[in-house]
């Protein structure tokens, strides 16, 4: 049985039948699951815990930046590191900043995420899994993709490059040194960490279009036609309380 990150190493095109739940959930419901997941990850990062979401991990690592009166500042820097298996399998570039090997990467607490939005755990688990499968399909097809994490930032793939741009509110919140703001103002390199529309690579999209997650949208009609069979229904009626919510 294929388990863990190896489920996202696709040797052939993804079978739409493997996204059966995404086709039943509304866009709003998919986004609710990922909004709760993003908030959960953010809470864990505030406690300096690294979190493995399945295809990679979020963490906060110490960094030194060129800013301040003494020319250098220590900050707590949020990062996302793609799984080595995913990175090697899809021939993605190695990250510049890595999570230290001694840092334990905690799995998602699906029960806590599910309880925060009153969804059943199996629904949350399958929704996350199928969305990550969809993400893996974009990597297999060498497509551009923007994966929005509402409380964290935007994970983008452009060619072989993986870029994680964090929202400024997140970067400031996760920094316990109180040096992040002067670091952002004084060091252009650390400013590149922040999601700024028009100034980051996630805004630079090719003519072939860009896949947008978790709302499963496509930047242009051509891409939409090619992958429409994988796209969940947007206007389906919500399931009854007994089908989704409760324990």
A few lines on this structure:
It is built from 10 helices and 9 strands.
Structure characteristics:
single chain, 247 residues, alpha+beta, five-stranded mixed sheet, four-stranded mixed sheet, 20% strand
Order of helices and strands: HHEEEHEHHEEEHHHEEHH
DSSP strand count: 9
Number of domains: 1
Separation of termini?
A: 27 Å
Beta strand %: 15-25%
- Radius of gyration over alpha carbons? 18 Å
- Largest beta sheet: strand ordering: 7-6-5-8-9
Low-pLDDT parts are 221-247
Helix content: 25-40%
Largest sheet: 5 strands, mixed
Number of helices: 10
Mean pLDDT: 85
Described by the principal axes of the CA atoms, the overall outline is: globular
How does the helix and strand content classify structurally? alpha+beta
Description:
It is a single chain. Helix content is 36%, strand content 20%. With 247 residues, the protein is of the alpha+beta class. It has one domain. β1 (50-52) and β2 (56-65) form a beta hairpin. α2 packs across α4.
Would you spell out the secondary-structure blueprint of this structure?
Layout: H1 20-24, H2 27-46, E1 50-52, E2 56-65, E3 73-82, H3 84-89, E4 105-107, H4 110-117, H5 121-140, E5 144-149, E6 153-158, E7 161-166, H6 168-174, H7 180-186, H8 188-191, E8 210-213, E9 217-218, H9 221-227, H10 241-244
Parallel strand pairs: 1-4, 5-8
Antiparallel strand pairs: 1-2, 2-3, 5-6, 6-7, 8-9
Helix pairs in contact: 2-4, 4-5
């Amino acid at each position: 049985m294929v388990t863990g990150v190896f489920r996202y190493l696709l040797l052939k095109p993804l079978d739409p039948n493997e996204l059966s739940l995404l086709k039943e959930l509304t866009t709003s419901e998919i986004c609710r699951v990922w909004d709760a997941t993003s908030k959960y990850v953010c809470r864990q990062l505030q406690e300096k815990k690294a979190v493995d979401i399945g295809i990679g991990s979020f963490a906060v690592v110490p960094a030194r930046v060129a800013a301040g009166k003494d020319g250098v500042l220590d900050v707590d820097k949020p990062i996302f590191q793609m799984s080595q298996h995913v990175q090697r399998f899809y021939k993605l570039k190695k990250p510049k900043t890595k999570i230290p090997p001694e840092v334990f990467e905690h799995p998602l607490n699906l029960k806590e995420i599910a309880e925060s939005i009153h969804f059943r755990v199996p629904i949350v688990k399958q929704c996350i899994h199928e969305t990550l499968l969809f993400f893996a399909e974009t990597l297999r097809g060498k497509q551009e993709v923007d994966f929005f994490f509402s409380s964290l930032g935007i994970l983008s793939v452009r060619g072989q490059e993986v870029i994680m741009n964090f929202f400024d509110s997140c970067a400031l919140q996760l920094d316990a040194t109180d040096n992040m703001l002067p670091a952002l103002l004084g060091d252009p390199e650390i400013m590149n960490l922040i999601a700024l529309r028009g100034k980051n690579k996630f805004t630079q999209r090719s003519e072939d279009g860009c896949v947008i997650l978790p709302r499963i949208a496509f930047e242009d009609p051509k891409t939409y036609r090619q992958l429409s069979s994988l796209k969940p229904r947007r206007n389906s009626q919500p399931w009854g309380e007994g089908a989704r919510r409760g324990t």
